Amino acid sequence: MTYKFSITLLFCITTSFFSFSQTKKSITTNKTNESVTIDADLNEASWKNAEIATDFVMFEPDNGKPIDEKKKTEVKILYDDEAIYVGALLYDDEPAKIMKEITERDDFGTTDAFGIFINGYNDGQQDFRFFLTAAGGQLDCLATEQIGEDFSWNAIWDSKVKITDFGWVVEMKIPYAALRFSPESVQTWGLNFVREIKRERRVYTWTHVDSKIGAVIQQAGVLNGIKNIKTPTRLFLIPYSSFYLNASDAQKTKGEFKGGLDVKYGINDAFTLDAILVPDFGQTKFDNVILNLGPFEQQFNENRPFFTEGTDLFSKGNLLYSRRIGQTPDLNLNLADNEFINEFPSAINLLNAMKISGRDKDGMGIGFLNAITEKTTASVSNSDNNSTRQVVVSPLTNYNVTVFDQRFNKNSSVTFINTNVTRNGNFRDANVTGLLFDLNNKTNKYNVSGGLKSSSINDVKNTNGINASLYLAETSGKFRHSIGGDFISKDFDNNDLGINFKTNYYAIYGNSNYRILNPNKTFNTFRINLNSYFEFYKPTNQIQSSNFNVNINSTNKKNHFFGGGINFNPFKNYDYYEPRVANRFFVNPENLGGWFYFSSNYNNKFALDINPYITHVLNQNRYEAGINVSPRYRFNDKFSLVYSFDYFRQQNDIGFIDFENNDIIFARRDRNTFTNALTSKFSISSVMNFNLSVRHYWSLAENNLINTLNADGSLSPNTTYTNNKNSNFSSWNLDLSYSWWFAPGSQMSILYRNNAATFDRTINKDFGSNFSNLFDNNLNHVLSISVRYFIDYNQAKNWFRKG
Prior knowledge:
Layout: H1 3-15, E1 26-28, E2 30-31, H2 45-48, E3 57-60, E4 73-79, E5 83-91, E6 113-119, E7 126-133, E8 138-144, E9 148-150, E10 158-163, E11 167-175, E12 189-197, E13 202-205, E14 221-224, E15 235-248, E16 251-266, E17 271-277, E18 339-343, E19 350-359, E20 364-373, E21 376-382, E22 388-394, E23 397-408, E24 412-423, E25 429-440, E26 446-458, E27 463-474, E28 479-488, E29 505-515, E30 523-537, E31 542-556, E32 561-569, E33 573-575, E34 586-588, E35 591-599, E36 606-617, E37 622-634, E38 639-660, E39 663-685, E40 688-709, E41 715-717, E42 727-743, E43 746-760, H3 767-773, E44 780-788, E45 791-792, H4 793-802
Parallel strand pairs: 1-14, 2-4
Antiparallel strand pairs: 3-13, 4-5, 5-11, 6-7, 6-12, 7-8, 8-9, 10-11, 12-13, 12-14, 15-16, 15-44, 15-45, 16-17, 17-19, 18-21, 19-20, 20-23, 21-22, 23-24, 24-25, 25-26, 26-27, 27-28, 28-29, 29-30, 30-31, 31-32, 32-35, 33-34, 35-36, 36-37, 37-38, 38-39, 39-40, 40-41, 40-42, 42-43, 43-44
């Protein structure tokens, strides 16, 4: 991208001269005074007089093409003082072919679907989206252009579907407590409807969403006619009770009861308070732990509902890694030579947590998250006198995130975010502040984004650091381009509440890509990308990471996905992290690699994913290669099975293993990793499901040649080092669960879990014996039963009145 083009791009973004020329569709709703039964019959008199939204057009793959008359869709809306009602007739000339796999909540599966997008402020900023599958499954999410769809958000609403001889029928009741809107007497809402015909892999919308523009929410239609409604009191209580039965070969079977309460309270029409008292995360998904030989910690997904639901504001600037809250304790303790840890905690308990989040009619989003973890100790014994003492591994700690995000022009925002960690006593404290911007011109053709972040650490040595970034992009049309840059100072540190692996560098990167916007004779979708990335170590200006990449992603006319690419690194890279010592580096040679990916159409009962890949270090007998194969089979609409096998091989890999005197010891090693995973689901109905998840992981690394790292980043043979630093790690996890949503928002779940892990320095390449060793005195068993009951204040007060 030339300098002249960059200036032109920035000018177009900041001046924003253009506007949409698209005429918005609108529909006017009527108020109903009769009771509407949610039965998918639409036989109330009010439905007969309601205005019809129709004339859907294709969103993908053939953007803008009118829907076939045989698949026409007609939608009506009613409202009363409590909720809005949606009735939809989805015509299909082959109703027997309607796909309707039964899945659990928030999982589309292989099924037709219908959805409504509601923006109560009609500001083009945020949608509340509600979907129904042809099998009756509910899905709901919050959606923004910056974050996309967040399905961790859940609302309470009623729905019903019915398959008929002309297609299928949808009926929804969405209470106002599930929405956000202004207090004005006359409401004007942003509105769109979506329909997916799964067997054809086609998606249609009521208001045409032009894929050349890219912004979906701003292209919505309008809902008129709602008058004199009030935001209800949004107070929801979710008490829970859990029982855990734990057993293993190392300890006696023991039971444990837990109980607590979640609270959701609507402070006003825009903002919500969420709080958890005595939290219980015992039924969250297990972590996919690996044998980590690199210099950086393994990053895990957040599986705790409180930290995943409605957290789009808190994700701004990538400053929050919520697994820091209640993480596994750091046991790198300063112990004497005659001391050892004889009892240590597996986790740091979360005492309580609360968050306030929302966005008002003026586009101001506010987020506030606070969590407190308890003081945690480990027991340390003295081998000389058998005495014991308690060592604090984590003091009483307060975690806090504050966000102010102002949106404007329907597609741009400026954000202030602060994260703070305060630990009791003479322990480390941390504060990180960011000012971010994401600006688009009115036609959404150009974007400029970036920000400035600063960190301040109060420890034995107080430090301050900065992180700055700038990104420019053309974001619409067939040809799109972008360029960006980052600068991270030596002392920037957000790891107390975030996660960041590298500092003290600057980087520049770019992308050019071409895509088709409508299907052609060969492809439904096609995109080719050219990427480049250069990262420089700031003190020496040496390249510490670089890459050129070309990749293609496509979908053919049978909706099979094909992708592949080539990576080329033509420069030596100076790795300042693998040596584990400041200002020391290891020189990685040039390399070349590639991959291919094929995923067959999931509409078929049998589908297959396959992904081989390889990277070769040039002029050396050093490479890494692997393959992932994942067949899946859908036996019927209730039962499906997915198996995944991944094999990864590293030949003559080079990495750090130890220190010896003043030397840094590296090894040339061969590494093999096998991962077998099986997932299965059996759905009795959309509210009652069985799920199975099994994972076996085995990785071994055998050191063949010991080396000493030289000052110039090269290696020289070491014949004196004799410690065994081979690695042989295996893990096993099995989760079998039953879930029943017995009432709106109320759930009973039963989980049986067993897990095991082993690690040793002896290399045993026999798969069978390694697998069997996992279960020799290592297997842990947990059986848990949890019941959560949803109480809506508006319903509860009626109970008391009737009483």
